[in-house]
Amino acid sequence: MDMLPFKAVVDSPLDGGGLLVVRLCPEDELTRFAELMREHHYLKGGRSAGDTLRYFAEIDGRTVALLTWGAAAYKLKDRDNWIDWNLGLRKQRLKLVVQNRRFCLLTQPGSQPNLASQVLGACLRRLPQDWLQAFGYRPLIAETFVDPHYAQGTCYKATNWQQLGVTAGSGRHARDFYQKHDSPKTLWCLELVRGARQILADPAPLPAECQKGVITGAVMGTEASAATCKSLMALFEQLPDPRGFGGRRYPQKQLLSILALGMICGCQTLQAIVILGQSLSQMQLRALGGIKRKKTGLYEVPSYNAYYNLIGQMDAVGFDAALCEWLSAREGSLPRDLALDGKVLCGTADADGHRLALIALIENQTQRLIAQQPTQVIQGDDGSKQEGELTAARRLLQGVPALDHATVTGDAMFTRSDIAQTIVQDKGGDYLLALKDNNPTLAAEVRERFENAMERPVPGKENPAQERPFFGKAK
Question: For residue 8, is pLDDT > 70?
Answer without folding.
Answer: no
